[in-house]
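Hey Z.,

So I finally got round to the nicotinamide-adenine-dinucleotide thing we talked about over coffee. Here's the setup:
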Amino acid sequence: MVKVLAVLYPDPVNGYPTKYARDSIPKITKYPDGTSVPNPKNIDFILGQLLGSVSGELGLRKFLEDGGNELVVTSDKEGPNSVFEKELPDADVVISQPFWPGYLNKERFEKAKKLKLAITAGIGSDHVDLNAANEHQITVAEVTFSNSISVAEHSVMQVLDLVRNFVPAHEVIRQGGWNIADVVEHSYDLEGMTVGVVGAGRIGQAVLKRLKPFDVKLVYTKRHQLAPEVEKELGATFIKDVHDLMKQVDVAVLTPPLHSETYHMVDADMIKSMKRGAYIVNDSRGELVVRDAIVEALNSGQLAGYAGDVWYPQPAPADHPWRTMPFEAMTPHISGTSLSAQARYAAGTREILKDFLDGTPIRPDYLIAEAGQLAGTGAKSYTVKKGEESPGSEHE
Ligand code: NAD
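And the result:
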């Protein structure tokens, strides 16, 4: 018998939905790189329903209980008296979603004496201290590619929201007004601008692909340059140094994972080096940027806009300055948890769990850390510095 502890976001305030806006979601069988979307046998949940909240249980209860296993689901995740921390000592598996992260820091690893596997239902395992996971020989896995396209769509939307000044225009309508000049004094066309993607992996390449038809100049940076044929197809030029890229762009879209190399990558000095009136979109992780440097640059006019749906910590406190700063197009962390994305990452979570329960290897694409070191996708995308806490994991 295995105990699985899942930390999921709360249900809608008006209760778990009984009907949905659409009757089905499109059937996607392959990711853009040709790999298969997760499709474990005998899925018994309905694709397109709310699976990421507490009552949705990622569709896992029947599957786990039929196998004689225990499932505990909670949204109560902060502090020593939380359900998460109380249930942790005898959990074999912890599942968490980046939208509502169950932070697994050093102290929590010490308490989790039976833990063997930490699954991120989604992508981005920075809420897990990867050094501590390696010290304790805990496997860390995430559902690679499950919501990369979902996030890319959101980022493209936010690029347009900022440049076109959509949010204030919408507010004028909600408030009964028709103040055209008030909105258009801050509104431009994207056409002709230079857009740069930082960390052009799965999300970043999907952003480039979707922006190409807008007749913009596309540049990107990542750890390793893309193959010439991929660059040609995307119409994007490689710039090795992120500082050089940031100086050239009108719009920067940040998409690398959060780790020691990317933590606070965008600080006041980098923002100062950008063109006045540049925009930044960040749906990757809040701590890629220095929080107050963003607020100051929006207030001074150095940045014309900032959009994102990632914060630190999450949930963001009511007085978080990004809630009230000017020229923002912020959302709570929703980009990777559309109903379409949930169907894929719930299926992928089940695939990982099934492999774990059967004692069969987990897809290398899904692995972040295993047997005391970074593995699979984790070895390609993350860096851990021995003895250092991973940024993003420390939160009470
Ligand atoms: P990916 O692994 O395909 O891409 C990450 C890219 O970043 C890789 O190409 C890697 O080489 C590059 N990179 C790593 N370190 C770098 C550095 N120091 N400088 C430049 N490039 C660097 O992952 P992905 O699917 O594109 O996801 C990327 C990140 O987006 C995740 O780690 C997560 O933090 C975030 N994400 C957010 C959501 C959301 O809901 N908002 C959902 C999914 C993923």
